[in-house]
Amino acid sequence: MKKIILSILVLYCGMFLLNSCNQDLLEVEQHGALNPDSYYANASDADANQLIAAIYTTMYGRTNNNVTPGDDGVTRTANTNVNSQNAGSNGDFTALYRVNYLCNLIIENLTPDTEIKKQVIGEAYFWRAYAYIDLIMGWGTPPLVDHVLGPDELQPTNGTPAELWAYVESSLAEAISMLPAKPGLGQQEAIGGRVTKGAATAVLGEAQLYKKDYSAAVSTLQPLINSGLYALQSTYLDLWHVGSDFCDEYMWEFNFDDADQANFENQGDDRAIRVTWRAENVTVPGGLGVSGFGGADYGKDFYDFMIAHDGKSNRYLGTIWDYEDILDRFIELGLAADRTEAMGEFWGAAPIMNNCRGYFRIKMVPWGPHPEIEGWVSDVYDWNDADNIHSKANWPGMRYSEVLLIYAEACLGAGTNTAEGLAALNEVRVRAGIDPLGSYDLQDVKDERRAELVSEGVRFQDLIRWGDAATETAGLASHTYTFEGYVEGTTDYLVTPTAVPEWEDFVVGRDELNPFPYNEMLLNPNIVQNPGW
Hints:
Layout (H helix, E strand, L loop, with lengths): L1 H11 L10 H4 L9 H6 L3 H17 L28 H20 L5 H25 L21 H18 L18 H14 L3 H13 L23 E5 L16 H5 L24 H11 L3 H4 L2 E3 H10 L6 H8 L6 E2 L4 E3 L33 E5 H15 L3 H15 L9 H11 L6 H8 L2 H4 L6 E8 L6 E7 L18 H6 L10
């Protein structure tokens, strides 16, 4: 199967428009490689599943871009050195077009003569729409590539918003018509982590919200919410851990085999080490016991917001811990008798934590193996060691709580069904452990999305579409911080700031969109660069 995938990728040639490929070379018969046309025509169900699995793998890899905490979980930062040649978004641009290309190969060439192949084609429609939502939100007017391009089509112009959104919506409509439906509550595992009619419907509603077609979003999501097929987990802290695999809150999920075996080819998910704190000198209570690659700091502004909005609620405890929460967690787990002893357990060789102000991101941080704690459930494989950390917890692609919040916002925008919108908003609030509201406005939706969806890859685009980015990101990463526990003799946090000289605040009229990659514009002179880049 690997040889087949490689032969398909040769056609891709590394660029979203195939610009770097020589058509004559593509037509040369490759000895030892299968012809893609004949391969698709004769594909078995197993072959079809392998084709779509490659797309799931690519899309899962992109989730690593969403989990960096920073202040408020906003992963995009402005920097005076960023330009169209080195923007961090360049690789994502190419990856999204690669997904679109692979999806179009499936749609155009795979025959839907079995239920499995029909499902795979539906998934291809879903993923090409999903890719284009990200392209539209990130680049505004990316070229529309709605089919596998011929040799005379390799330099398309920028797409228009109308045609781009039409491509997304029509693709999702096809996906909805072809994908299986989740049979009922508690039955996602029978389908696996794959997308369903419900998932495609949820993403269609999201796209319509982003397009500002609020009435359409209400009409799309209302039947989904009323279907009774999805529900929130009872405890926010349980999310992103193995106990929530295939729960009714996950609209779809990236599934990892729970078998404990040292097989990196099958268990390539290194998210556990990516989201664990980079913490050479501390121990996460209940964590992996190693230093990861992720940041720990959610920032004081976000902490203050969560305290004011949630208090120390169920959701707060599943999202962010202050220093005292960490010390108390050691006591709760029976790892320390009091806070003084807990400090000794927390700090290692030196009381210093880089990139932190004393407010620690706990959301998505995996639980490590702790046989000394009765009833403890680990998220990592038994064969893991300090150098090879892999998580077996499934990763949600979208959660039902987001669907409810999209619906609440769409109801406000449409000026209809606001009682149902309020009920949807309150369902999220009550699970969070805070009081329901008697009425709501857009600020309530903004606050709820900020609290509920931090680090899930939506915050920055929310700020853009609401027109709040310039004010909310001002000074966001202008400094780094070092946390060293308490100022001696007090319970004040000892934090040392260091200025970041290359920091640049959000530039209105430029930073709403990413730059089109320089290399892509060299290959396709018909692309018009976004303003300011």
